[in-house]
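Hi Prof. W.,

I finally got the Cytochrome P450, E-class, group I prediction working! I wasn't sure whether to trim anything, so I left the full sequence exactly as given:
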Amino acid sequence: MAFVFIIVIATLWSITLLFKTKRASSQPTLPPGPSPWPVLGCVPEMWRNRPAYKWVHRLMQQLGTDIACVRLGNTHVIAVSNPELAREFLKKHDAVFASRPLTMATRILSRGYITTGVVPWGEQWKKMRRILMSDVFSHSRAAWLLRKRTEEADNLVRFLYNQSLQSATINGAAGVVNVRTAAQQYSVGVMRRMMFDKRYFGKGRDDGGPGQEEEEHVGALFTMLLHVYAFCVSDYLPWLRWLDLDGHQKTVSEAMKVINKYQEPIVNDRIRLWRDGTRKEPEDLLDVFISLKDSDGSPLLSDEEVRAQVTEVFLAVVDNPYSAAEWALSEMLNQPEMLRRATEEVDRVVGSKNRLLQESDIPHLPYIIACAREALRLHPVAPFNLPHVSIADCTVAGYFIPKGSSVLLSRLGLGRNPAVWDDPLRFDPDRHLADNRRDLAEADLRFISFTTGRRGALGWGWGRT
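And this is what came out:
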């Protein structure tokens, strides 16, 4: 009797195992990737091979794949470097990959996820996105702010001219200008003017350049950008957060203190002016945020939402413009023929030397647009796009992508993919003229300038100016 019982149990177990094996074999598999450790995943390998973005790209090259899966803790990180795959994720399955991961840095930046860009999918994101689309990043709002942007562009010309004169006086040679500093300060300066209607937090400088306060503010913003999604160990192993192994939490917290030191007094004072009725009409973006009303006539945004969204708008619009300008100019200086073509194009469009270049001239500058596109392709501002988190299980290109996976589109991999671009490491603006592309946006995701889909860059129209 016991023998019969054992035979029955063994038979049932074999049938169950066979059924599970067949069912598993019929299901899609995860994309290729390294074998993870229990619980830790591949975090030990990530730690040993910092910076993590280089390690991920090396893995993809070693595996010979355009899509890879690296498990970090309990999170499946899916890296993609092929435009066709990228379009499948962000166009065909856009609704599934419409969320964002919860990270230490984004929690601090968004003051508990009450903003837009880094907030997970949900009602708060929908509310804030609707406000930004209709009241901040609209065409009419851009036109309303044109004068402020033009004044800052004129100030940039004055600053660069004064810098070149000062450098020539000191060195006794042709004037030298730090392009990176100028580009960073200008991109943030324009945003500061549109947001606060201020050029300086402090006294400023007579030559039009940034003061110590502006330099500290800009430095903190770019520090925050570097650490928002930076493969922080505690984002994948939360129980190690108290150790701050990589120092990210300390760095992010200190940067946020600097940002708040300069922004919060302005925001708090402006809120008071609106609440007590002293201020009646909006004069800048901060006024717009504070003055918005709901259907009952109450403030649409809480004071904390205003403070958080102001910071996120700064971060959303300052990185791509400065990076494209810096790299395009660097490449032109190394290839004087390109610089000659660009300056001749400006001279043809502007014509008279009695006026400066205007935003309205930009559509008539195809070669300069091509140079900016090529800079964004070859020298992206970050190695990966902002992560897209799946809100459900999904099959993409025959691979199983579990719910909660974090999808990273490789800006480096897409823009330098030899299957897409001829001689991909060569800076060649003419490749974009051949495509007749007259905008910085790249809808086909052959490279990433501004993101697309539900979580696309809301401020891309501002960034291109």
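The first strand starts at residue 67 and ends at 72. Does that look reasonable to you?

Thanks,
D.
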